Amino acid sequence: MLSHLSPAIRQYLIVTGNYWAFTLTDGALRMLVVLHFHELGYAPLEIALLFLFYEIFGVITNLVGGWLGAHLGLNRTMNIGLALQVVALAMLLVPATMLTVPWVMAAQALSGIAKDLNKMSAKSSIKLLVPTDAQGTLYKWVALLTGSKNALKGAGFFLGGALLMGLGFAGAVAAMAAALMLVWIISLILLRKDLGRAKAKPKFRDVFSKSRAINILSAARLCLFGARDVWFVVALPVFLSQTLGWSHWQTGGFLALWIIGYGMVQAVAPRITGKADDKVPDGRSALVWAALLSAIPALIALGLGLAINPAILLIGGLLLFGVLFAINSSLHSYLIVSLAREDGVSLDVGFYYMANALGRLLGTVLSGWVFQAAGLGSNGLAACLWISAALLLLTTLISLALPSGNE
């Protein structure tokens, strides 16, 4: 069946399949680690620390990974990412007595490196598989890849819980490692060997973008993801669990469903933003959608201050925030691939996702610190939401400088 497809579509399907398999195991691994170490009696802060290196190494990997992709080719960086994830999973198969916090943090650091190598490679590859004059197709392919990834990440949360119940921690990790190793072998055989290798070998200093448009878009992305994670990573789950009295399964299940829905909206974002009318987004589109999104955290924070039923307020607010954030994220993902230069595309994409990872890290740190400093409960969540609104306003202001379609 695949033989009837064009070479570009066959490569796109291989890249997407790799990305899907990796994302599913990445989401499942996160849930496995959280649930297993919670059962072992680890405190929430200790569990959060397990993922600290995951985020820190994401910043470093995106910066260096783009340079590696230009030198080695995107097929190699994608396959290295798959192999490193297998190693990270294998590290968790040691006896229970060796599963100390430093050891698991090291495994998570390796997983963070693997994840960002895989993501950078997948997003960069699409630029090279779509003709330059087919921007509508590029937008559609980027949206499908990005949206399906997030939907599968949410599905991975459910998979992790199911595997833990059915196979136990070690059995679940072993099953995922075996499945991902099979995907890695298939990828080694089928993925095009010269994909993404730059004709002119870039120097290491070239990892920092010289493009004004990409620097502006990267700054907007940093603020955008900082605005999400400043209330989503720590403050929201703790508020749902402790203040609203939700069980861990209710909290985890709701957030997993939110991520799946968020991914589905990302996948159809081209239809929402005008692709059906043969329009592709530009800097002006990013400005408008960022402005719309910036109002949502502020309205939720105001609602908390007015003592509106917090469960109804948060569920409704999260659904609206998720739709608008998904559209913003999808627009940005298209713009970086569209603006990136074709020769050495991974350098621009890697720099941009470094800013994305830095925003996530900033948001994660602020989420725990602000929520605790402001007194936990409604006051703490409201404080995080106001910071989110401020960061989104900054995203909007930065987006004013993005190029529009006629520039």
Features:
Growth Hormone, Chain: A, mainly alpha, 407 residues, globular
Would you write up a description of this structure?
The protein has 407 residues and is mainly alpha-helical. The protein has a single domain, classed as MFS general substrate transporter like domains (Growth Hormone, Chain: A), CATH 1.20.1250. 79% of the residues lie in helices and 0% in strands. The chain is built from 13 helices and no strands. Helix 4 crosses helix 6 (135-190) and helix 5 packs across helix 12 (345-373). The model has no long low-confidence stretch (mean pLDDT 80).
Instruction: Give the overall shape.
Output: globular
Average predicted local confidence, pLDDT = 80
CATH architecture: Up-down Bundle
In total, the number of domains comes to 1
Helix content: over 70%
CATH topology: Growth Hormone, Chain: A
Please render the helix and strand layout as text:
Layout: H1 7-39, H2 44-49, H3 52-72, H4 74-91, H5 101-129, H6 135-190, H7 212-232, H8 235-243, H9 248-272, H10 283-305, H11 310-339, H12 345-373, H13 377-399
Helix pairs in contact: 1-4, 1-5, 1-6, 3-4, 3-5, 3-12, 4-5, 4-6, 5-6, 5-12, 6-9, 6-11, 7-11, 7-12, 7-13, 8-13, 9-11, 10-11, 10-13, 12-13
